[in-house]
# Entry
Amino acid sequence: MNTQEILTKAKNEGWALGAFNAGNLEIAKAIVQAAQSQQAPVIMETSAGELEHFGLKNFLSLVENYRQDLSLNVLTNLDHGPGLEECQAAIEGGYNLVHFDGSSLPYEENVKITKALVEQAHQKGVLIEAEMDKILGDSKNHAELPESTQASANYTDPQKAAEFVAQTGCDILAIFIGNLHGTYQQSPRLDLERLKLITEKVPCFFSLHGGSGLLEEDVKKAIQIGPIVKVNVNTELRLAYRNTLENVLKGSDEIAVYKIMPPVVAAIQKVVEEKIQLFGSQQKSLNLNNS
Ligand SMILES: [Zn+2]
# Structure
């Protein structure tokens, strides 16, 4: 099945793929092991920074090796591609999905670049995710939520989103309905009423960024209400990596990396498995491979 078909199946059946950021080999390994144990299709993604660290060819080759060895549905995504050139390189390089984040640009400029990328991507069977309303926060552990009044003023407007999608032809829209990047002492709440209104007006797939630290009930309901086929998770993986590594190093004078890393991989794998179950994508790989 191609990317479009997998996302369509997810939409029709009311589940979502986890989009997990892989900044290095150990994180990639954890994601793949979780996908395998859960028999779940997953999206493995790199931000621009993670991509630079990993190397485009190395990242894509690694994913290809896993696909062949384990018969897994692993789609690749460039997460928050910052500009035309970076996104074009990902399309030409062989990513399955490319997210162009033009939310900081003037509207017309965002439309122009997104539209150009959609035209180029579709010739290669690549899907484009677009963003018009900046999703606040960043992939860190935060103490305080941003001022809620300030944030909700920037939530996705159904009518404007419909116009943006019609103008650009994007495949996936990154919606902003209270989801924030990063984790917070108090979980941000999703505006599910707004999601209903956006769903009525906007015909494309949706992605939900900020999948770390949201309330489980909100995420489940959101996937049922709207065509959310992709939920991004980064911060919880980074925290599992760092916290576990610190603990391992504290209790040992081991210097062989391959002996230090297994508990780190296991901790990240556990987070990914829990997210897969929350998004309802467990056991969906068999289903994709047989149909
Ligand atoms: Zn994001």
User: Anything to note?
Assistant: The two ends are 8 Å apart (CA to CA). Residues 262-279 form the longest helix (18 residues). The chain has a mean pLDDT of 95. The first strand starts at residue 17 and ends at 21.
